[in-house]
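FIELD: query
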Amino acid sequence: MSEHIVMKQAKDSESDFLVYTGNFCGYCTAAKRLLTAKRITFDEINFDHEDPDLRNQVVGLTGHRTVPVIFDNREETLIFVGGFDELSRYLKS
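FIELD: result
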């Protein structure tokens, strides 16, 4: 079930990245700024504005318990990137 909801959101998105965020999250803001500065499109899905179970499903899929939770949606297969630190390294390679 966890994978299904994320895959559906990725399929519905026409953006390059999916960024799951939370309110008052400095790393979420930094990730969004980095993507914007690189002119990379993204859809933000804020856990605080969604079904409370969504966060549990994303954690169950990725094992990543903090926000942001970032996926690269540019390829045929959705790629789990990680959080802000991982995104910074990912975009440099």
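FIELD: remark
The mean pLDDT is 95.
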